[in-house]
Design a protein that fits this description.
By secondary structure, this protein is α+β, with helices and mostly antiparallel strands. It is built from 18 helices and 20 strands. Bound molecules: flavin-adenine dinucleotide and FE2/S2 (inorganic) cluster (FES) (2 copies). Flavin-adenine dinucleotide (FAD) binds next to β8, α12, α13 and β16.
Length: about 475
């Protein structure tokens, strides 16, 4: 029997911090890192703009020991509960400078007039710091991507991009590199103990296991606990809906769920793999998924959000699901006593409804390698290109033989209360010539298959038009006989 562990530890800049929730009644296990920092003296640099991951004013950097090197990630601190940073280094804007010398990213912001009103600036600086630690002489596309999650209404970004180009062109010899081994030693000491954290306060129970076996036991014992992968969906229940989450099962610290492996026929992806890591691993292996991840949220969101979390949310506008239909993916569900593999079509049951039983976790996503003659395409239509939720998205699979449709999957997000295939249109197209005339007929069937909603993002008529036009786009991108 393990002794109960109910305090968390992390390194705040360069100091070891222990938080005991029972002797700090002003802190809850679900206090966000943002609110924790702002409760401290001398840590008011981090700002709250939106409290929902959209503005980046709360950006901080966390560092973790990855095979003997620190790996740095920008995150939105408004979405992260304190125990999620147990065993990590939390770096804030106050600590970037050496006492008398600004960090290169700060100095270049000054040199290029990257700040005016200054509200967004600490978050922007932390995003530039994350860029600096991860990239030397990055392409402009990489710089822009690192700033997608930071809204600045004053400077117009060009000075900030210039600051990034200059800062990241120098060799990284900052104090974080110099002190890396000391920080790693501190983090290793915290992570030496691997039995779970069990934080119990008057109103909340927060469980943080570090092994899958422990996680499955907690899941069995506390079947109604809210599961936290990256918390980019779940945290909003607290920050926006002001719910008190009474029981939380935080699986963000389970390394066993963070992997990407492939054999001859299939890719197997651990459900805890974050979307930024996934994006970097699949550029050539799963190009349609990579294309979708390039327009998924922001870097801060992708650094937190897990593959499993997106699928479990079963949102009708979740970006991964239509594609997983096109890839004929399978979801592995495990409980303490059992495991099963469910095709994605059977996994999604309705509006935010899945076939997960209340003692199960998603542990793996299997994506069969597409046959060489099968084309998979992804499309996302949203009001803004970046950091926006889909109005309509499509995940399509097409196999042609002699310009005739052998097989086709047309899966849509945003067109119904759940991700849905256009089965009648697929049926109509199978066996037919892949010509514009046939596709135009199919577009009419497609329109009649869905009754989309009108909401703040779009009217039903517009959604219907997009869906039809996405089919035409698929045709125009795949036809060899011309339009
Ligand atoms: C600013 C912002 C932008 C976003 N942009 C996009 C976008 O472009 N496209 C998009 O699709 N989504 C977007 N999202 C939504 C969200 O980021 C994603 O759905 C994300 O993938 C959720 O993953 P997570 O790990 O953070 O989930 P969490 O919030 O941790 O969990 C979400 C749900 O899944 C359950 N869950 C998590 N992991 C498991 C598991 N292993 N087994 C069983 N259940 C589990 C939880 O109980 C919870 O119900 C955005 C969110 C924000 C805040
Ligand atoms: S406060 Fe806006 S992203 Fe966190
Ligand atoms: S400097 Fe004012 S919002 Fe960015």
């Amino acid at each position: 029997m393990n002794p109960q562990r109910d305090t968390i530890q992390f390194v705040l800049n360069d100091k070891l911090v222990t938080v005991d929730f029972n002797s700090n009644p002003e802190l809850k296990p679900t206090t966000t890192v943002l609110n924790y920092l702002r409760s401290l003296p001398f840590h008011k640099g981090v700002k709250e703009g939106c409290a929902e991951g959209d503005c980046g004013a709360c950006t901080v950097v966390i560092a973790e020991n990855l095979n003997g090197k620190l790996s740095y990630k920008t995150i939105d601190s408004c979405l992260v509960f304190l125990p999620m940073i147990h065993g990590k280094q939390l770096i804030t804007v106050e600590n970037l400078a050496d006492p008398d010398v600004l960090h290169p990213v700060q100095q270049e912001m000054v040199n290029h007039n990257g700040s005016q009103c200054g509200y967004c600036t600490p978050g922007v600086v932390m995003s530039l710091f994350g860029l600096y630690k991860n990239h030397h002489k990055p392409e402009r596309e990489v710089i822009e991507d690192s700033l997608t999650g930071n809204l600045c209404r004053c400077t117009g970004y060009e000075p900030i991009i210039k600051a990034a180009e200059h800062a990241c062109s120098c060799v990284d010899t900052d104090k974080f590199t110099i002190h890396e081994n000391q920080i790693i030693a501190m983090l290793d000491e915290i992570s030496r103990i691997t039995y779970p954290l069990e934080i119990k306060t008057l109103s909340q129970k927060y469980f943080k296991p570090f092994t899958l076996a422990d996680a499955l036991l907690f899941r069995k014992t506390y079947p109604t606990a809210t599961i936290i992968g990256g918390a980019t969906d779940s945290a909003l229940r607290q920050t926006k809906k002001h719910e008190v989450l009474p029981e939380i099962l935080d699986i963000s610290g389970i390394e066993e769920l963070d992997y990407f492996i492939e054999d001859e026929t299939v890719y197997k992806i651990g459900s805890g793999t974050n979307l930024e890591k996934l994006k970097s691993l699949i550029v050539e292996k799963l190009p349609a998924l990579h294309k979708m991840l390039k327009v998924f949220g922001s870097l801060q969101i992708r650094n937190l959000a897990t593959f499993g979390g997106n699928i479990a949310s079963a949102s009708p506008i979740g970006d991964m699901l239509p594609l997983l239909f096109a890839y004929k993916a399978k979801i592995k569900l495990q409980s303490a006593d059992n495991e099963r593999i469910v095709p994605i079509g059977d996994f999604i049951k309705g509006y935010r409804l899945t076939s997960i039983q209340n003692d199960e976790l998603i542990t793996e996503i299997e994506i069969p390698k597409p046959d060489s003659d099968t084309l998979i395409c992804s499309y996302k239509v949203s009001k803004r290109k970046h950091l926006d939720i889909s109005t309509v998205s499509g995940g399509f699979s097409l196999r042609l033989e002699n310009e005739t449709v052998k097989d086709i999957i047309l899966a849509f997000g945003g067109m119904a209360s759940q991700t849905k295939r256009a089965t009648q249109t697929e049926e109509f197209l199978r066996g037919k010539a892949w010509t514009r005339k046939v596709v135009e007929e199919a577009m009419e069937i497609l329109a009649s298959e869905f009754l989309p909603l009108s909401d703040a993002r779009s009217s039903a008529v517009y959604r219907s038009l997009i869906a039809r036009n996405l089919l035409l786009k698929l045709f125009s991108e795949t036809t060899t006989s011309g339009l």
